[in-house]
Amino acid sequence: MSLYYKSTRNPELKVTASEAILKGLAPDGGLFVPESIPKLEKTMDEMKDMSYQEVAYEVMKLFLADFTEDELKACIEKAYDDKFDTEEIAPLVKAGDTYYLELFHGATIAFKDMALSILPHLMTTSAKKNHVENNILILTATSGDTGKAAMAGFADVEGTKIIVFYPKNGVSKVQELQMVTQKGKNVDVVAIHGNFDNAQSGVKAMFEDQELAAELAQKGYQFSSANSINIGRLVPQVVYYVYAYVKLLENEEIKPGEEIEVVVPTGNFGNILAAYYAKKMGVPIDQLVCASNENKVLFDFFQTGIYNKNREFKLTTSPSMDILISSNLERLIYMIAGEDSEKTKELMEALKKDGEYQITDEMKERLCDFAAGFATQEETAEEISKVYQKTGYVLDTHTAVASYVCDQVEAKKQTGKKYLVASTASPYKFVKSVMSAIDEAYAREDEFALLPKLQEISQVEMPQAVKDILDAKVLHTLECDVDQMKKIVQEIIIR
Ligand SMILES: *Cc1c(COP(=O)(O)O)cnc(C)c1O
Nearest C-alpha to atom 15 of ligand 1 is from which residue? Predict the structure, then answer.
């Protein structure tokens, strides 16, 4: 049996999983989606004693059908090893009545590690399978989290090189230090004199630059993307929802077949889409609850059926969710349009042209697997404080958005169901906002001074990732103007 991928905007295009991973985006601008979502072969009960790696194999082999058993197992072993500070990889913590699935135990203490630890291996394996002889050059623009996770994932991976661009004054102190201290002979980081949009536009322009592509090919390189639209990032994220359900069952927190609710702090819609795929595979999940911060485009979309990005962009305390164009939503739109690629294309073009589109009533009815909510910055801070006072557990700002929405939905529905909240970052990564939420007095203190204090109040040891940046050497000092990005890529590759 073989599973192929097609573009959301063109049914004629058909590629294997490894080709989809190498390409990232379909040439027509659409996203790659599996022809159908495979059903799990084993029951939840049969998976009860499995390790994270074993569950990963059970899930991923169904999506990555052209990978051999040996190839896929090798990727999984290399990804989920002692880079994670816990053997469980994604531990489940119960605080109050809620289950938090901690997805932040990887190298950069945010959930991007769950997929970016394995993507480099999936990509080099895909390159081998498709007889690609070039080295893969990853270019990434980042507002903070993705860049570091991608660098950590690709560092010293044979046959790859990665260059990350970040806005010089647009990232937090911890985030910048994490990036400029990154080791690895194939990684480069460049601070640009501009904002995130400039960085992203610059990278996009390079992807479309045929001259540059030819020049790079001469040097033995070809571009690829570590962006969250790559199915090589989506598929590994399905794993932890299956794993979480299996662990709830193993720990007798739920009965066999019992449906749970899943709440996900959402930005680009990748994480929650993975949870939806898990439901489609057969995990007993009732609804997927989409939690937004004050940039609540998705909340409004689920309420009204209208997606409208024409609004003020707000900088919040949960910056990784500050986003107005949720690119992975296109995959859901395609599904609720009955896999109609023409309709999908029409709506996506409207989004590009007018910044807005409206789905049909029929499509809206198919959204019944989803619920949505949002939290303001005050509500997010109150949630951190409330959960800490009640249980002693410290949430990061992103997880707190979801936790707040979880309480709201629960109070409204009163179904008595168990709630699983995806916990996407360590509180250490956003220490200032987290500590100020617990006590306003902390707001006046230096970010670094707050780190040991967080350790004291949370009783959770400071992660290695944080200790590392406290005394690590700065290895990257490259800076450039926005219009010099191409030149700096040429210099890096030639040097
Ligand atoms: C990226 C990110 C999110 C949003 O995830 P999406 O898959 O983009 O919806 C939420 N929380 C944190 C900490 C993140 O880094």
Answer: 320
